[in-house]
Amino acid sequence: MKVLRLLPLAGAALLGLASCSKSTSEDANSSKLEVRLMDAPGDFRSVVLDVRQIEVHLKEENDPDGWKTLGFTPQAINVLDYVNGRSALLVSDDFAPGDLKEIRLILGPNSYVVGRDGQQYDLKTPSGQTSGVKLKLEKATLKQRETFQLLLDFDVAKSIVERGTWKPGNDKKERYLLKPVIRVVAQDLRGGLRGTVSPAAALPQILAIRSSILGPDTVSTWADASGAYQINGLAAGTYRVEFFPSTTAPTGQPAYVNKVRTGVVVTNEQVSDLGTTSLN
After folding, report:
1. 215: phi > 0 → left, psi -120 to 50 → alpha, else beta; which?
2. CA angle 108, 114, 118 (to 5 degrees)
3. Is 128:178 a contact under the CB 8 Å cutoff?
4. 31, 97 Cβ separation under 8 angstroms
5. Phi and psi of 39, rounded to 5°?
6. 271: part of which helix (H) or strand (E)?
7. Predicted TM-score (pTM) of this structure
8. What is the pLDDT of residues 83-139, one digit of tens each?
9. How far apart are alpha carbons 265 and 147 in whole angstroms?
10. Were both Cys, which of 13, 104, 125, 208 would link to 178 (CB 3.0–4.6 Å)?
């Protein structure tokens, strides 16, 4: 299947990803709904999702008549193209004002990953091929003459599960399962943080942890090959940022170590820059 590279939205432009803005529609009674996809990367060269259909639910949870199909062209999407502040525009539809209850992605049978070994492995998606991947929405209200944007933050590291019984030489189609973990960015989550790590070769996982009355709220990503990282869609507040190298330093060089940065303040509609964090 041909992989389509969608036009990304880069950098600070994503700060408005869940905000409302004036629509150019001439219909004074309509709204516009946009759905975007971004990724918290994992340890793969490519992660390609075979997305066939996107729907939203407009009624109460168990009402089967509440689903509406959005204007989406079925395609294969390499989600690793959309990290560190980039996103893919999946849907841009005129829509009637009102509340959205859920969003659902229907996945086809042709999703796959390319591992660090350069080999392609099929991804089995049992739930995504039947009832679809359902995500609850909170406070998702479309208003007249405004655009409402939803960001689907796909977590590769948590979503792709290796079978414990698989061994080299076994059927490659049986190695990985896709159990999608997707965070929906709510309307009022418009903060973010970014920075770089040194050495970039440490390729750390990065956790942004904010304490709340409901317990710790953790969002993760990975630094890219240049050492850069960016996390969007964060609630305003004070975070603890933890860095966990995924590789070991070459012989004769200083070891890579875990690091923790505390007191990191995230402000609504701004991206906080942490500068460079040393992992030696």
Report:
1. left
2. 155
3. yes
4. yes
5. -135, 140
6. strand 271-278
7. 0.62
8. 877 788 899 888 888 888 899 999 988 999 998 889 999 998 765 556 788 888 877
9. 28
10. 125
Contacts of 231 (CB under 8 A, 6+ apart): 40, 192, 193, 194, 206, 208, 219, 221
Contact (Cβ atoms closer than 8 angstroms) between residue 54 and residue 68: no
Pick the closest to residue 140 from 19, 235, 13, 38 (CA basis).
19
Token pair, residue 51, equals: 């997305």
Residues 78 and 48: beta-carbon distance below 8 Å: yes
Tokens of 143: 């208003």
Q: pLDDT tens, 186-234?
A: 554 568 899 999 999 999 999 999 876 545 678 888 999 999 999 877 8
- Domains within the chain, CATH numbers bracketed: 11-185 (no CATH), 191-278 (2.60.40.1120)
Which tokens sit at 231? 């996390």
Residue 279, both tokens: 């992992």
- Closest by CA position to 79, among listed 178, 219, 176, 174: 178
How far from 197 is each of 71, 207, 245, 250, CA to CA, in Å? 40, 13, 10, 17
Contact 206, 231 (CB under 8 A): yes
Contact 69, 90 (CB under 8 A): no
